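Case study B.
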Amino acid sequence: MADESLFEFLHMEIVSHIFNEQQSGKGEMDNKDRAACISLLEAMGFRVGQGLIERLTRDTPSFKDELDIMKFICKDFWTKVFRRQVDNLRTNHQGTYVLQDNKFALLTQFSAGKQYLDQAPKYLAFSCGVVRGALSNLGLESVVTAEVSVMPSCKFQVVIQKL
Amino acid sequence: MSRQSNRTTDSKKMNSELFTLTYGALVTQLCKDYENDEEVNKQLDKMGYNIGVRLIEDFLARSTIGRCQDFRETADIIAKVAFKMYMGITPSVTNWSPGGDEFSLILENNPLADFVELPDNHSSLIYSNLLCGVLRGALEMVQMAVDVKFAQDSLRGDNVTEIRMKFIKRIEENLPAGEE
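Model:
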């Protein structure tokens, strides 16, 4: 069993490394550079999510349908990865899901309000990737985005791509 | 669903696979970012150092351990308390130098390298080099300059993973007058 603070520190270092790497060479970062960093972090998370779900679903019976998978993500997966269940799951029954976590693990140390809100996206990209990677290995291609209005609460929006 | 949301006991322990896989993703990324393994090793050490200087505060606050009397005590605390707390393993402390300023940590299994196999073209990559940085950074914050490096690595064909630690010097404290 590893300790969560170790993971949190590692995650912070990864985020700052990716951003420094992009920034060195040029002076200012524009929105395009920032988007590139975010998608890099997302891609790293994706691979981690893929690996995690393989390990976590080893002994699980197969899923009935999409909603069943989402419930698994909200309960078991979230508990294993972020140490609590998703507080609220909503769906429009057309492939869009909103997962709300009122005390998201990676944001609790930042603030309990609106301070540093502009910094939040870079600390959520990795987690979005983790969720997307997990869904991908369960056969659901999706787009996962995160939205924060007040820390440490966070809403993840999952849009399943119909092929 | 909110049934468990207030549960806080033992919440510090987490799924170590998340940590292991995340670390793997980082190393993969660094291998893409840099041309040679040396550069990756250096970067891992630097990131580890940044983690170490922060982790020590977390460690001291949670373990309520005071100042070490000598390097032997330091070694014991690193192996039995710190490694146990953060990685869930207890390395053995061996190979003391006659002067008592150098020892080895032997890791039976390295949690960072759980699902890892090094490809042939990365023979000089020190996969877990982050650990060296963490140890160096953490000890520097408690006034000890220490040289840390991997002497053996099971990923590179050795039988065990061995971290060699060498005490260099005590860093002088520059406390403002009147403060203990």
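Chain B has four helices and five strands. The remaining cases will be described in the next quarterly update.
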